[in-house]
């Protein structure tokens, strides 16, 4: 724009100056010829006045002037000429200046002279006797004056050109500087020229629309980023060259990187997992696929899809399926264990029943066989009941409800229920602590307390002891069951809460355990948002604590 204004202004100034020079030059030529004719006419009148007074020598002196002097009779005959032979000259009666002088007393003309072979300017005056005095000068004299003036005009044109360039640049800067200072956020109020106001208003309207669209796009982008970053699944967008275009926080945590480090880099630069590489390479042949892989101790499922839009790309979705895989494995183990655990008592029952039915048992041994069948039946019934309890807990224990429950009271009633079993092993049970209530399900809490105390009695030494303590901690309530039993090795302590897991299978059969008691304890603790702690040394005993946090349950301490 600045260049256009500059060259437009400068060009216009130069064009106008050039036209003026051409006009003045043309006018100057005519003016110089007219001026020369007037000068000659004035000189001719002076000479004519002298000749009328009888001063003929004046005509002779005029021959030394820078002009051709001719004296012509009223009939047109040349009587005298300062530059030529009068005898050889034609009659001049038809010359325009001679004709005008005879009729009007004086006359001028510009034409080509055949005698001098030049363009001449003529001026003629009629004398008193009727003869004509004519002076003539070459037109080039006037042309010299015009050329001198044209030279001065060209010099002036050059000065005008320089001034035009300077002033055009100066005025262009003055014109454009306020335009450059227009605030595009507020063009109407900062517009320096009234002529630009319509444009400024239009820009302002478009700016408002653009700002609204940008704000909407930013809101959509922020909303999309918030949703993507809030996903627990990893989300990655790649181009067809496998360069990362977008990656959310979950994917960054999974691959051990940050968005700033990952964006723009190829996927193999942040992870070269064999299964992932094979998955994305197979997308050249198919539009979607999935692959399962392991990172650390976790198992993940990556789903890949090719997206066809204006530009092709790949979308990766990574899900943590560790719990699902472990659940499936646990269900498989659980089914196998249940089948095994149920087969054992059923086999025993069937065997004894067949022997009784076939009459192979002596009458005095029949009571013992019936006792064994009854014992194995109860064992199987206990196992089925524990399995049903765990099944309800796996389903979220829909039947459970919360109410204030005294842990100390549950411990005391459980101690009374286990009194005969404890007496058989000469184990003493002591319950101490604060009468503290937690909000929870009575049935589940009873199962939790019973299984902990039952295990403490079963796996104790003869003549040992069990101590149950309920106390308040900092922002929590703690139930601890300690025994002086066989203890648990360190390698088993992380697995004792798994279903059917036994540290000593032969001893568990002797004690009649099903291997599900601590699994029930774990599920009951999870339902009440409690955490479990195990402290144990082989041969010295075990202490298991269940910690109920205050932020999960309403806790009140009974007074008195």
Structure description:
The chain is α+β, with helices and mostly antiparallel strands and 560 residues long. It folds into four domains: 2-147, Beta-Lactamase (2-Layer Sandwich), CATH 3.30.450; 231-320, PAS domain (Beta-Lactamase, 2-Layer Sandwich), CATH 3.30.450.20; 325-391, Signal transduction histidine kinase, dimerisation/phosphotransfer (DHp) domain (Helix Hairpins, Orthogonal Bundle); 397-557, Heat Shock Protein 90. 51% of the residues lie in helices and 21% in strands. It has 16 helices and 18 strands. The chain has helices at 2-52, 57-61, 96-104, 139-180, 197-230, 249-255, 259-262, 274-282, 322-357, 363-394, 407-417, 419-424, 442-458, 490-493, 505-511, 517-527, and strands at residues 68-72, 78-81, 106-113, 118-126, 132-138, 234-239, 244-247, 288-295, 298-307, 313-320, 403-406, 428-433, 436-440, 465-473, 476-483, 531-537, 541-549, 556-557. A five-stranded antiparallel β-sheet has the order 2-1-5-4-3. It has a five-stranded antiparallel β-sheet with strand order 7-6-10-9-8, with helices on both faces. A hairpin with a 3-residue loop joins strand 16 and strand 17. It is rod-shaped, with a radius of gyration of 63 Å.
């Amino acid at each position: 724009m600045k260049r256009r204004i500059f060259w437009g202004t400068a060009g216009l100034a130069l064009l106008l100056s050039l036209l003026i020079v051409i006009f003045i030059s043309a006018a100057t030529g005519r003016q110089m010829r007219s001026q020369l004719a007037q000068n000659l006419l004035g000189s001719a009148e002076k000479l004519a006045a002298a000749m009328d007074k009888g001063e003929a020598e004046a005509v002779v002196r005029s021959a030394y002037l820078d002009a051709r002097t001719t004296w012509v009779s009223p009939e047109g005959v040349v009587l005298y000429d300062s530059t030529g032979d009068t005898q050889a000259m034609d009659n001049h009666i038809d010359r325009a200046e001679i004709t005008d002088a005879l009729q009007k007393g004086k006359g001028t003309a510009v034409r080509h002279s055949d005698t001098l072979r030049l363009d001449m300017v003529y001026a003629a005056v009629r004398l008193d006797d009727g003869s004509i005095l004519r002076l003539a000068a070459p037109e080039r004299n006037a042309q010299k004056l015009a050329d001198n003036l044209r030279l001065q005009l060209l010099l002036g044109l050059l000065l005008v050109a320089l001034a035009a360039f300077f002033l055009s640049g100066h005025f262009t800067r003055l014109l454009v500087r306020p335009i450059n200072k227009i605030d595009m956020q507020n063009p109407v109020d900062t517009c320096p020229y009234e002529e630009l106001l319509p444009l400024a208003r239009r820009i302002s309207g478009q700016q408002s629309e653009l700002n609204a669209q940008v704000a909407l796009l930013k809101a959509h982008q922020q909303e999309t980023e918030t949703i993507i970053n809030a996903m627990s699944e990893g989300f990655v967008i790649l181009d067809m060259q496998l360069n990362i275009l977008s990656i959310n926080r979950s994917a960054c945590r999974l691959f051990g990187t940050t968005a700033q480090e990952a964006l723009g880099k190829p996927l193999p630069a942040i992870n070269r997992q064999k299964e992932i590489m094979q998955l994305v390479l197979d997308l050249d042949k198919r539009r979607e696929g999935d692959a399962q892989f392991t990172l650390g101790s976790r198992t993940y499922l990556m789903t890949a899809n090719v997206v066809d839009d204006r530009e092709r790309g790949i979308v990766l979705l990574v899900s943590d399926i560790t719990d699902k895989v472990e659940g499936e494995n646990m269900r498989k183990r659980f089914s196998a264990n249940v089948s095994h655990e149920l087969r054992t008592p059923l086999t025993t029952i069937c065997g004894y029943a067949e022997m009784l039915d076939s009459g192979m048992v002596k009458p005095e041994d029949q009571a013992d066989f019936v006792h064994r069948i009854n014992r194995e039946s109860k064992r199987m019934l206990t196992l089925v009941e524990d399995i049903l309890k765990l099944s309800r807990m796996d389903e979220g224990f829909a039947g459970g409800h919360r109410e204030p429950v005294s842990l100390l009271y549950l411990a005391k009633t459980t101690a009374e229920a286990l009194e005969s079993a404890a007496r058989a092993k000469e184990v003493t049970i002591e319950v101490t602590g604060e009468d503290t209530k937690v909000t929870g399900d009575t049935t589940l809490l009873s199962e939790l307390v019973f299984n902990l105390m039952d295990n403490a009695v079963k796996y104790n030494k003869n003549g040992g002891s069990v101590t149950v303590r309920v106390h308040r901690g900092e922002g929590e309530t703690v139930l601890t069951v300690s025994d002086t039993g066989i203890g648990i090795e360190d390698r088993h302590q992380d697995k004792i809460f798994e279903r059917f897991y036994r540290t000593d299978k032969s001893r568990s059969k002797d004690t009649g355990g099903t291997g599900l008691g601590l699994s029930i304890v774990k599920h009951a603790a999870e339902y009440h948002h409690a955490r479990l702690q195990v402290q144990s040394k082989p041969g010295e005993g075990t202490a298991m604590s269940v910690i109920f946090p205050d932020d999960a349950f309403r806790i009140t301490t009974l007074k008195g």
